[in-house]
Amino acid sequence: MALARTTGARGGPRALRWAPYLLISPTVLLIAVFLVYPIGSVLYYSLQHYNLTKPWANGFAGLENFREMLFEDPLFWSSLAFTAKWVVVEIGLQLLLGLALALIVNESFIGRGLARSLVFSPWAVSGVLTTGIWILLYNPTTGIVRYLGAPEAAVLGNPDTVFGAVVLTELWRGVPFFAILLLAGLQGIPGELYEAAAVDGAGRVRRFAHVTLPHLRDAIVLATLLRSVWEFNNVDLLYTLTGGGPAQVTTTLPLYVAQRAIDSKDFGYGSALTTAGFLILLFCSLLYLRLSRFGADHKG
Amino acid sequence: MATDVIARRRVPARARAARGGMRGGDRGRIVRLYLPLALYLLFTLIPFYWMIVFALRPAGSTAPVPWPITFEHFETVWNDIGYAVFFRNSVIIGVLSLFLTTAIALMGGYALARFRFRGRTFFMVALLCTQFIPGAMMLIPLFTIFRGLGLINSLWSLVVADTVFNLPLSIILMSGFVAAVPFQVEEAAMVDGCTRRRAFFAVVLPQLRPGLIAVGSFAFIHTWNNFLFALMFISKQDNFTIPVGLSYTIGEYSADFGALAAGGVVAAVPVVCVFAVIQRYLVHGISAGAVKG
Amino acid sequence: MRSISRACTAAAAVLAMSLAATACGDDSGSGEGQAAGGKTTITFWDNNGGVRTPIYQELIKRFEQANPTIHVEYVGIPIASVQQKYDTAVAGGETPDVGGVTTSYLANLTGQGALEPADDWLAKSSLNGKLVENMLASVKQTTPDGKLYLVPATSNLDVVWYQKDKLDAAKVTAPKSWDEFFTAVDKLTKTPDQYGWTIRGGAGAIFQLLAEAYAYSGVNTFFDASGKSTVNDPKNVELVAKIAALYKKNTPEADVTNDFPKMVAQFTSGKVAMMHHNLGSYNDHVKAFGADKVDAFPLPVGLSGKRTVVANPVDGFAVFKNSKNKDAAWKFVDFLLSKESNSYWNQQTGQIPANTDAQGDSWLAERPYLKSAVETLGSPDTVVVSPPYYLPQFSSITKADTEPLFQKVLLGQMKPQEFLDTMAQKLTEAQEEWKKAHS
Questions:
Q1: pTM, whole model, 2 decimals?
Q2: CATH hierarchy code of domain B72-292
């Protein structure tokens, strides 16, 4: 990043002043055309009563939806708490396993290409299909658990085991994301650094801590942030795997939004819930970027 | 250059040989490499195995192996449900969105990584903000926009919508990859007389290859798997995509897990094959040293 | 690298061109409804796309042969997303000409002014007087203005599917009373290899539970004279408690999150002897077991001694107000409900035709369970309880609001009484609110 200041070796400073704007212009254009209005409409409807099942009561609501959400809706709080737990556990494990996996398949060994394409492949499986497969796997009558000596365990039906079961399912699909990204990040590390470290007598662990990790830092910060946001808003898996149950113990905030806004057609209240999620994510993201000192000069 | 790449790959091996005898290394490799890999492969492959079992065994069978083998489920999904068409559509939107996303993300990512410009932080935060609202909440306004553009029922609505939703993530990741390429590489080329653009294409782009592949595959897969947009923006049987086809097999009056699994195999196999081909590019690009020499 | 990028560019160009070609080629037909050659195009949305697609493709082929100037474009919507699809389409102004619609979301669609009433068409149609009378009545009850916004196509009934050999092996015959039923469930349970029953605990649980409760209690209306919901009638509570007591004892533990696919997966794996659903899942069972291995009986007769049936949502066809080709649209609806088409559709899906002429067809008589279902529905001794499908909130009350509560009942975290009291209160309130809004 420090290097950015040294731009302008050629092409002249005047041309370069416009270069970044030119480069981001397609993105800005697309976002302006396709996302500003939809996001704005969600914020707008959060201040409205807008319920297809009660058309006679529609109209301006002020902060009424937010009041109901904060003071009268225990499910808002419980779903928020579950979302936090879900994101932290899921991202923590995905990062750890993904990093380990990236390091493993970065080594050279016979059959590496095959191993790589196999461990990456769950990433290519859609939400509908992931849940379809795992429902079959978990169900005692159709699944594989009955061959593992536990014929009666209905992991998705038991409030004590359901969390572990859904976490495992999402790991299956989510770990490859980190693995691919970190593997790509590993390629940017010049080999000489390892050689130098090895000459200095650094062991595997120290080489990892002093060469690999610092180089992957930005990639890790970004990947955890983006994936956290993604997992926060991830609805499809839980919706079909557990429907938020049993008895609402796996209901995340966005799943609750889907139930209220789409199933119950209360779009105003759903928008208020979404707005709350938006503000929470915005706050957490900024905090995270600040705390991780992302983009700071740590390489020099 | 090829030898350079190979030499680089061997570095860890050489370092290990320098540390100790080969035999200790072998045992270490088993514990460190093969055992965890084998375990992880097991975890990855069991669900796939189960899917294949369901896809290949007759309906009503409860055998743990796909025997007797049958292709009836594949015939159902390919002919009756219409996967032949869905598959074509998914490939088209996946590939187009991949190229659009990667190209635009490369530009945006380069701008974020290489320039400090006014509004940079705002741009970054705005990108993040677009990810904070689930697509399902924005369906109706998006529908209205696409209708205004005359794109409803056209595959372009999916290409554009998926690209727009892929972009923020792709740009931010891409900026990380660009930042990881030392600026001196670019500078050296410019000192040699290249314009900035030529320096970018000649020396930066090749080094970004792993990043491009990672970002491109994310874009492709997001598009490939997007069910909601495909179902909502398309009301034309011949323009539906694979995820819509998958959802046909599981519903209130049909729980055809055989067809779901067969559809899943159809959906997953090409992507796994593409991975198998492109993963070889997920290795060191041309290093800075090679350019200097 | 250079050659790779060149190849990629070429590939992208080819794709873009093929896309442009398909997009343009297809677009001409849709939207305006007028294609080249003076042919009228109408779109038809199937509200349960997938396995039923081939049935409609066949019917459309027949229709187009009989009406060469009309082209019907079929669009299959997955059943789980059909309400969201309709809501989006109505809000976006891109509705089909004809769509499959059921009374469970009819009130929402008419509330948004999306549908065209069918009364005028029916009055002039040759089908007048041929459609099952109480289904027409039940559709008209769904909307405040009492008009017919949906033309019923098929009649359904809750039944208990069972594996014949399992019942034979346990020397159990199809139970007629609830006592017999619970005894049978017990006899058929040999844990962990076989369960007598399976409970639907996940999506769609409440409707089936209510069907069981009212069949047991014999309560004959959903609201009493004062407008209070009868859902928490003591006898209904009794039944829910009895069902909940079966959980894990006579049913798999996984039942608590059972939606239809999971429930059917359990049943067709052969581990569950009996399962409550409706006529519509016939094909799933036949595919898994074979037509001679599976049969069905109606829900047992309850304490009142009279067979009490909770009316299923009526499934049929609606013409949308935005349609530019209403004549062609009605013509298609007319065709779909003709004796021959209606008979074909219902024969394929295993349900009862809404066209009374088609009810006499021989295939019905060949399936004893279907014949008895027709008799049950037609018998004057059968009490039909109509759920308040006219309440736009009915579907959210019986799904998002109360499904988790039933799961709590199964898990022992809530008493059946409290669960039904909560549901009754919500229904009573919704009923009052609706009456106020429409008085």
A1: 0.89
A2: 1.10.3720.10
